């Protein structure tokens, strides 16, 4: 059999850290290699988490470098590519930092070796993450009900493949289930029965049987999972959501990255001093352009040296957000941001008709960021 590499990227965030622990505990039979892509502009808390994970996992987390930092005059990998891009800061519409500092080192390191990449997208997230264009790399999502990537699902559920999939279902399904399953397997995708609806229906009917069918299909392809004699995640029907992630981290002793822990701030609302909390919602560079305004305020007040460093990157026409950090750091603007954040948090509490715990109060716009791209 062709040797297949198993890789899991550690971003320094909660989801990838929990996935590493989960896979070690639940699937010790898999020889998973762990890695991280260091931009040189991470928070110190990120490096501390990676150190704790090293101990827990019992093997080193390998560093994938975008450049040979000994042979560049720049301070970090990020600064090297910033200079190469002529000082053009990355943004949500030009994410060269993700490509150059995360994706390219990953693909260059593994070359053309068949690789299964385990990705920590949770069961309560509706996104697919990074899917490599290289046919030798296959992404798997252990925390979701659907562990397969969108490219695999498109092929498995294609209308031209219905007869093939029917045969696989007959081979893996018990007699008492096959007829009820085939009703939906035979139903072609249409405007009234979309691919997503068909997928969710088949998963709801029996996730493990669906996984076994997909595995049989993959055995006819060059996908890395299909090169295996057996893939234990076929038997997986776990769904882990945000609260489960925190539990995995806390129960393991690794703990939650400190930047997720809420800190208290005060703001005056209608003549009264109110107390709110803020924290960071994701891992990634301290100047990540996906940060919300309240996260920039968090950085300003908890890591003023890093905020100052982030300011130093801004030039005329090149800012991290729609307003410059020079303007954002002004006292009246900080107060306004805190006020808006507090009022929004209170509105959400009323909307939910309950007080959130600190895990649920992490900024709702959690999501897009380097780790959500592929790690």
What would you say this structure looks like, in words?
The chain is an alpha/beta fold. 43% of the residues lie in helices and 10% in strands. It has 15 helices and seven strands. The model is unreliable at 363-369 and 371-375 (pLDDT under 50).
Q: Classify the fold: give the CATH topology of the largest domain.
A: Rossmann fold
The residue ranges in which pLDDT falls below 50 over 5 or more consecutive positions are 363-369, 371-375
Q: Can you identify the CATH class of the largest domain?
A: Alpha Beta
Assembly state (oligomeric): single chain
Shape call = globular
Overall domain count: 3
Tell me the distance between the termini: 27 Å
Q: What would the average pLDDT be, to the nearest integer? A: 90
Helix content: 40-55%
Q: Give the strand order, joined by hyphens, for the main sheet.
A: 3-2-1-4-5
Examine the secondary-structure arrangement and name the CATH architecture of the largest domain: 3-Layer(aba) Sandwich
Layout of strands and helices, then pairs:
Elements (H helix, E strand, L loop, with lengths): L4 E5 L4 H13 L5 E6 L6 H14 L4 E3 L12 H8 L11 H15 L4 E4 L18 E4 L9 H7 L5 H11 L2 H11 L9 H11 L1 H12 L23 H11 L10 E7 L2 E7 L14 H10 L1 H10 L11 H4 L2 H22 L17 H4 L2
Parallel strand pairs: 1-2, 1-4, 2-3, 4-5
Antiparallel strand pairs: 6-7
Helix pairs in contact: 1-2, 1-10, 6-7, 6-9, 8-9, 11-12
């Amino acid at each position: 059999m062709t040797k297949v590499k198993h890789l899991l990227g550690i971003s320094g965030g909660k989801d990838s850290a929990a996935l590493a622990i989960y896979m070690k505990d639940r699937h010790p039979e898999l020889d998973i290699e762990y890695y991280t892509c260091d931009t040189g502009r991470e928070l110190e808390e990120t490096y501390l988490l990676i150190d704790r994970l090293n101990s827990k996992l019992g093997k080193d987390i390998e560093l994938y470098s975008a450049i040979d930092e000994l042979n560049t005059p720049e301070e970090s990998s990020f600064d090297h590519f910033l200079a190469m891009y002529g000082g053009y800061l990355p943004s949500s519409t030009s994410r060269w930092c993700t490509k150059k500092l995360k994706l390219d080192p990953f693909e260059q390191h593994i070359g053309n070796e068949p690789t299964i990449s385990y990705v920590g997208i949770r069961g309560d997230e509706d996104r697919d993450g990074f899917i490599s264009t290289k046919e030798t790399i296959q992404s798997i999502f252990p925390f979701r009900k659907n562990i397969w990537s969108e490219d695999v699902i498109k092929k498995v559920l294609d209308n031209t493949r219905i007869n093939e999939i029917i045969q696989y279902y007959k081979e893996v399904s018990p007699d008492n289930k096959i007829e009820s399953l085939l009703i939906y397997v035979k139903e072609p995708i249409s405007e009234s029965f979309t691919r997503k609806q068909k997928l969710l229906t088949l998963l709801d009917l029996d996730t493990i049987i669906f996984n076994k069918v997909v595995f049989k299909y993959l055995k006819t392809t060059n996908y890395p999972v299909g090169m295996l004699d057996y893939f234990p995640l076929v038997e997986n029907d776990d769904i882990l959501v945000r609260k489960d992630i925190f539990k995995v981290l806390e129960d393991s002793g690794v703990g939650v990255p400190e930047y997720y822990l809420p800190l208290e701030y005060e703001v005056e609302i209608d003549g009264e001093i109110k107390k709110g909390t803020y924290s960071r919602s994701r891992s990634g560079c301290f100047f990540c352009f996906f940060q919300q305004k309240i996260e920039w305020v968090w950085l300003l007040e908890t890591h003023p040296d890093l905020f100052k460093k982030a300011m130093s990157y801004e030039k005329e026409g090149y800012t991290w957000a729609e307003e410059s950090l020079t303007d954002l750091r002004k006292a009246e603007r900080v107060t306004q941001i805190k006020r808006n954040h507090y009022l929004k948090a209170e509105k959400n509490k009323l909307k939910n008709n309950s007080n959130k715990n600190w895990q649920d109060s992490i900024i709702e716009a959690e999501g897009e960021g380097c780790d959500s791209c592929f790690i």
